[in-house]
Design a protein that fits this description.
Helices cover 36% and strands 19% of the residues. With 134 residues, it is α+β, with helices and mostly antiparallel strands. The strands form two sheets. It has a four-stranded mixed sheet.
């Protein structure tokens, strides 16, 4: 089974110049745990997760005096840019191995022809939904 048949196409994304506050708000309102960061051309720049935001929130508790300033900072301060990706043509079983190896709950899916272009996102939830029932 190919990743393309299981992934969530056209996932919610955020721009690199968006604020951390914008990312937090979007993820909470839409109840998502992973947010690809893409530039104006639709090219993948990185990924931010709820885990990143939890760590950030804990650091805010330590220094309340700079809260507004830190929330206005651009999302790239929390974005992982060395993201493991899979392509639309990869096999799901290989994607599972990548997720386990990287210890992540989702992978950005890039176009098989243009590996810089985001095509979707593959999460463990997508994989579980596609799991064949016996």
């Amino acid at each position: 089974m190919r990743v393309e048949s299981v992934m969530t196409p056209e996932p919610l994304t955020i721009r690199p110049d968006a604020s951390i506050y914008d990312a937090m708000t979007l993820m909470m309102e839409r109840d998502i745990r992973h947010l690809p960061v893409v530039d104006s051309r639709g090219e993948l720049v990185g990924m931010i997760s709820d885990r990143d935001l939890r760590r950030f929130s804990l650091s805010l508790e330590e220094d309340q005096s700079k809260l507004k300033e830190r929330l206005r900072a651009d999302v790239m301060q929390l974005t992982h840019t060395d993201v493991v990706t899979v392509t639309t043509e990869d096999e799901v079983k290989d994607a599972i191995d990548e997720m386990l190896e990287a210890k992540v709950g989702a992978l950005p899916v890039v176009d098989a022809v243009d590996s810089s272009r985001l095509a979707g996102i593959l999460s463990y939830v997508d994989i579980l939904r596609a799991w064949p029932e016996d």
